Amino acid sequence: MNLTDLTWSEVDKLSRDLPVVVPVAALEQHGHHLPVFTDSMLLGEVVRRVGDTLQDKVLVAPLMWLGNSHHHIDFPGTLSATPRVYLDLLNDLTDNLITHGFKRIVFLNGHGGNTTPGKQAIFEARQRHRTRTDLLLLFATYWDSANPNQGRSDLVQSQMGHACEWETSMILRLAPHLVKDITKLQEVPFGFAFEPAYRGWITKDRTVPGHIGSPQFATPEKGEYLFQTFSTGVSQFLEQVIAWDGHSWG
C-alpha cells in the first residue's frame, strides 16, 4: 500500500511490524541518449510492480528523487544533494518513521551514488537507537536483488553500469519515446580499478559521453525481462523482511 493514499488515522491503525519501503533514486545526466530522470523512473517502475505483488504486506513511501549525484554535476541537468545533506535527509526520514513506531525500515535504492551515504545513514541511525533490539534498518539496491545473466544469455553486460545496456533496455520498455538514437554509441569500459586502494573520482574521470557500459545492445525485450527479474528479486527480499523474527536472517 502507498503511504500517500492514507489518512493519518489510517496510518495509525497499521501494524508497526509492517515494513516501510522508502525508494531513493536521483536526477542526473544519463549520457546523450537517456533522460536525466532515468534512475527515478526505473526504480519507480520496480517499486510499482513490487507493490502490486505484495499489496498490503508493505507500506511504500513516496520516491525520493533527490540523490547524491555530485560526481555528475559537471553535466548540465544534474541536481544533487551534497553527501552530508543527503545523510541528514535519510537520517531524518529514518527518525520520522521510528517516531511513528515503525520498526522495519528499508531504503530501496536506484542510484549507485546513494550507496555509500545510504549505508552510513542507517549506520548512524542504529547508533542513535542503540538500546533498541527490535529495529531492522536496511539499505538495499534493487539490481543487487537478482542476477539477470542467469536467465538470459544475450545480455552483453554482467553488471549494472550507467545509461548502459540494462538501463537503456528498461527505458526502451518503459518510455521508448525518451530514448535517443543508440546505434552509434560505443562501449565505455567499466574498469576503474586502483586496487588495493579506492580512488576518489568524478564521472568525467570515467567517461566522456556520460554512459558506462554498452547501451547500443539494448532492446525493450531485455528491458521487460530486467524489470521482471529485479521486481521479483526485490519482492523476495521484502518477504524476508516481513518474516524476520527479530534475530536470525535467511
Short summary:
With 250 residues, the chain is an alpha/beta fold. It has one domain (3-155, 219-243): 3-Layer(aba) Sandwich (Rossmann fold), CATH 3.40.50.
What does this structure look like?
This protein has helices at 8-12, 38-54, 83-99, 115-128, 165-174, 203-206, 220-243, and strands at residues 20-24, 59-60, 104-109, 136-141. With 250 residues, the chain is α/β, with parallel strands linked by helices. It has a single domain (3-155, 219-243), classed as 3-Layer(aba) Sandwich (Rossmann fold), CATH 3.40.50.10310. It has a four-stranded parallel beta sheet with strand order 2-1-3-4, sandwiched between helices. Helix 2 (38-54) crosses helix 5 (165-174). The two termini are 25 Å apart.
